[in-house]
Design a protein that fits this description.
Order of helices and strands: HHH
Strand content: under 5%
Helix content: over 70%
Number of strands: 0
Number of helices: 3
Structural class: mainly alpha
Largest sheet: none
Distance between the termini: 30 Å
C-alpha cells in the first residue's frame, strides 16, 4: 500500500511539474487516465489492508 501511495504521488507530481510538456503534446487525457489507474490500485490495496485488519480484530475478539 505504501509503494502504491508513493507511485500515485510521484505520478501526480511528475504531471504537475511537467504541465507545459503535457499541454504541448496534448497528453492530458493520458495523464488523467494514468492517475486514475493509480488511484484504483491504491484503493484496492487499501481495501485489502482494512479487510485483513478487521479479520485480525475479529479473530482476536473471538479468542478472548
Amino acid at each position: 500500500m505504501n509503494t502504491l501511495d508513493q507511485a500515485m504521488q510521484a505520478s501526480a507530481v511528475d504531471s504537475l511539474l511537467n504541465f507545459e510538456t503535457v499541454k504541448y503534446y496534448g497528453a492530458e487525457k493520458y495523464e488523467v487516465d494514468q492517475y486514475h489507474a493509480m488511484i484504483k490500485k491504491y484503493q484496492k490495496a487499501e481495501w485489502l489492508n482494512l479487510l485483513s485488519l478487521q479479520l485480525l480484530n475479529f479473530v482476536q475478539a473471538v479468542l478472548i
